Amino acid sequence: MAGKVLKWSPRAKKELNAILRYFRVRNRSSTYSHKLSKEFRKASERIRQNEKTGQFVEPNRNIRFVIVAENYQMFYRLEMRHNTVVTIWDARRNPDDLKFD
């Protein structure tokens, strides 16, 4: 079943690139970054196939999230014509710092 297009906000793209870059530098290898990137692509495909796969965070704003590779959460907004990944969050961080705008 084909779903809606899943777009990425500039913020989400920047956060994902920063995470992948961090692990490339820290590990002096791109192996883990490639693995993590693959997990984000799988999560994107799950959302694209079934937009209601994630849990609601803010029902009145239509924001849901899915867990990616244990420590990361991908937050996305349900919209009329497409859905948008709004942020990538490291679940080990303080949840009070999580913002969607």
Describe the overall structure.
There is one protein chain. The chain is α+β, with helices and mostly antiparallel strands and 101 residues long. It has a single domain, classed as 2-Layer Sandwich (YaeB-like fold), CATH 3.30.2310.20. The longest helix has 19 residues. It starts with a strand and ends in an 11-residue tail after the last strand. The model has no long low-confidence stretch (mean pLDDT 92).
Report a brief summary of the structure.
The protein has 101 residues and is of the alpha+beta class. Helices cover 37% and strands 30% of the residues.
The number of helical segments is 2
Text of the CATH class: Alpha Beta
CATH topology: YaeB-like fold
Please give the order of strands in the largest beta sheet.
1-5-4-3-2
Number of strands: 5
Under CATH, the homologous superfamily reads RelE-like
Keywords:
101 residues; alpha+beta; YaeB-like fold; five-stranded mixed beta sheet; 30% strand
Write the layout of secondary structure elements.
Elements: E1 5-8, H1 10-27, H2 31-49, E2 55-58, E3 63-68, E4 72-78, E5 82-90
